[in-house]
Amino acid sequence: MEKDMAIRREFKSKAFLLFALAIIIEHSTAQTKTGCSSPGRCQNGGTCVEADSGSYCICVNGWSGDDCTENIDDCATAACSAGATCIDRVASFICLCPYGRTGLLCHIDDACIHNPCSNGAQCDTNPINGKAHCDCPSGYRGTYCNEDIDECSLGANPCEQRGKCINTFGSFSCQCPHGSMGSRCEIDINECAPNQTGQNCTQTGCSSPGRCQNGGTCVEADSGSYCICVNGWSGDDCTENIDDCATAACSAGATCIDRVASFICLCPYGRTGLLCHIDDACIHNPCSNGAQCDTNPINGKAHCNCPSGYGGTYCNEDIDECSLGANPCEQRGKCINTFGSFQCQCPHGFMGPRCEAHITFMS
Predict the structure, then answer these.
(1) 330-333, long-range: CB within 8 Å, 24+ apart, which pairs?
(2) Of 281, 263, 282, 274, which Cα lies nearest the Cα of 298?
(3) Which helix or strand (DSSP H or E) is residue 141 part of?
(4) What CDD domains would the database entry show (predicted)?
(5) What's the CATH code of the domain at 310?
(6) Residue 173 placed within a domain
């Protein structure tokens, strides 16, 4: 009996010592974790300072709290105008303006509402004073881009080969001299006979640059030089495109467009395929919910390119975005599936299609 009591006293004594040791270790660990040597003691760029009473953080602008993790609500003192929505950011805020208002605080009328710019100019509003600024297209100038620029009097003649520059409203045209053509007279017209070149139309052979065009091969012979043209070209210098439409098999009603060594069939309404020989399945559009119907040019079958939120062969099946993976709603908002889309039921204090905007209730 006495032996058992001694064992129990020894066990209790060891248990007490272990308990006391655990408290000492825990207290030591707590002191270590709260000092500046602890990783991440001060967050978001804060500076840790050791003092007699313990460590504390000096937070950078926009943050507060014991460890600088609390974002200061700058919308609480923001001066966004009535009707604007304030979005809080770190050490700043953004005012989302209603229609017709602009400026950093949405305090200015938007001058671009009644677009004063002419001739297709882009109207931009100055966020400081609300005035309109017109970005003029080429050929126009002035505050509202309603003044013509005379390109012919700006400096050097824009027409090559000494062509005559004629100003037009918003542009110019070139009257080219004999032997040249193009919008700026940049193309020289070869008026010589085949196998001749230069101002005096001098006879040349294979040594002349460009004797055979479009990949043709020049061959010297006793009677002179001649060209062996690649597929699709013909003529003395391989500059004549062979008319492939002459032997094309486009179906009745189609229009044949000749290309180099090939052709294209432009199909009439209701027909498709390379030769317009197939009925177009997209005529009676089988696609639902605004999907784009494309016809396979090989077999004429319809293919539906579904818009976001829909699936299936004909885009008539709803995609449940709420069950695809991660919650599309921020701030732990509740995702509610709808036909072709989804909605977010936002927690108190947040708004937006995905609960991405923080609401500040201004007095």
Answers:
(1) 330/354, 330/355, 330/356, 331/355, 331/356
(2) 274
(3) strand 140-141
(4) EGF_CA
(5) 2.10.25.10
(6) no
